[in-house]
Amino acid sequence: MERTLSIIKPDGVARGLAGEVIKRLEQNNLKITAMKMLRMTKSQAKGFYDVHRERPFFESLTDFMVSGPIIVMILEGENAIGRYRELMGATDYREAAQGTIRKDFATDIEKNVVHGSDGPETAAFEIGYFFNSFEITG
Ligand code: ATP
Ligand code: MG
């Protein structure tokens, strides 16, 4: 069993895509063991994406991530990290495989609807960033 952190980004929430994303998680046997809606502050967004601090898109990305509420979830399952990244599709929706969330719904390389942890260490950091032990079921 593996855990990963999923975010429905501000564009996904604003466009009413939360139900569609959650449906795909459920259909693909990624069990949601924690979930909440929140709006990050700029400094929380910068901390979350700290690995990208030196990238040219960092300022724009963190502005986007605080532009509205997000839905954060913990997903659990066998190979959850890899399976969820497959469901999301490539960062750039133009390169994403058919049937992936980003291929179907992203409008921009930045506004790509969802986030998923990219490895076990990242997942542990990201889960701890948003959830304490009392908020995690199962
Ligand atoms: P995420 O971490 O959000 O799941 P990812 O792992 O597919 O996405 P990263 O390389 O970690 O992609 O980039 C983090 C986010 O930064 C992307 O999801 C996207 O919103 C934004 N981003 C990445 N590359 C670019 C770019 N070249 N221009 C603008 N925004 C970008
Ligand atoms: Mg990433």
Q: Bound small molecules, which ones?
A: adenosine-5'-triphosphate, magnesium ion
Mean pLDDT: 97
Q: Helical percent range?
A: 25-40%
Backbone CA Rg: 14 Å
What's the CATH C level?
Alpha Beta
CATH architecture: 2-Layer Sandwich
SS element count, helices: 7
What would you call the shape?
globular
End-to-end separation in angstroms reads: 12 Å
Structural class: alpha+beta
- β-strand amount: 15-25%
- How many domains in all? 1
Topology, element by element:
Layout lengths: L1 E7 L1 H5 L3 H10 L3 E8 L3 H7 L9 H8 L4 E8 L2 H9 L12 H5 L8 E3 L3 H11 L8
Antiparallel strand pairs: 1-3, 1-4, 2-3
The structure holds adenosine-5'-triphosphate (ATP) and magnesium ion.
Overview of the molecule:
The chain is built from 7 helices and 4 strands. It has 138 residues and is an alpha+beta fold. It has a single domain (2-132), classed as Alpha-Beta Plaits (2-Layer Sandwich). A 4-stranded antiparallel sheet has the order 2-3-1-4. The termini are close together.
Features:
single chain, 138 residues, alpha+beta, Alpha-Beta Plaits, four-stranded antiparallel sheet, 7 helices, 40% helix, globular, binds adenosine-5'-triphosphate, binds magnesium ion
